[in-house]
Amino acid sequence: MGISQPTNQQTLNKPPHIKMYSTRFCPYCTRARALFKKKGVAYEDIDVGSTPKLWRAMEAVSGRTTVPQIFIGSLHVGGYDDMAALERAGKLDALLFNQNLSQGVCS
Ligand SMILES: N[C@@H](CCC(=O)N[C@@H](CS)C(=O)NCC(=O)O)C(=O)O
């Protein structure tokens, strides 16, 4: 039978795909990368700086005109300030690590 099939629990807790539309040297993008690094999460980094078509695609999916634009799974977090606010509120890890707070409680 093998052991390759994830349990329902593992499927539920699969980390979301993290995507950031960015430019290489923008300070807010750099700060976002540093926070992702601190959290130890992998993310897709899409450089929109030299490709107007990609920048327009970012504007279309986010409704915003600045970089970075950050998505955690299907959730549009916003820019770096928005992600930092989630971190300050203690809400970022639950999103990054797909933690369902109702699970894992011993009773
Ligand atoms: N509050 C935003 C600020 C983002 C921001 O100002 N980004 C600059 C680059 S570092 C930008 O996209 N500027 C282009 C513009 O304003 O059109 C955030 O935290 O992401």
Main sheet record:
4 strands, mixed
User: What's the architecture in CATH terms?
Assistant: 3-Layer(aba) Sandwich
Strand order of the largest sheet: 2-1-3-4
**What is the terminal-to-terminal distance?**
32 Å
How would you sum up this structure in a few lines?
The chain is an alpha+beta fold.
Note down, in words, how this protein is organized.
With 107 residues, the chain is an alpha+beta fold. The protein has one domain: Glutaredoxin. Helix content is 40%, strand content 16%. It has five helices and four strands; from the N terminus they run αβαβαββαα. It has a four-stranded mixed sheet, sandwiched between helices. Helix 2 links the parallel strand 1 and strand 2. The longest helix is centred in the first third of the chain and has 13 residues. It is globular and about 40 Å long. Glutathione (GSH) binds next to helix 2 and helix 4.
Q: What descriptive keywords fit this protein?
A:
4 strands; alpha+beta; binds glutathione; 40% helix; Glutaredoxin; 4-stranded mixed β-sheet; 107 residues
Can you lay out the helices and strands and say which pair or pack?
Elements: H1 8-12, E1 18-22, H2 27-39, E2 44-47, H3 52-62, E3 69-72, E4 75-78, H4 80-88, H5 92-96
Parallel strand pairs: 1-2
Antiparallel strand pairs: 1-3, 3-4
Helix pairs in contact: 2-4
Bound molecules: glutathione (GSH).
Glutathione (GSH) binds at residues 26-28, 65-68, 79-81.
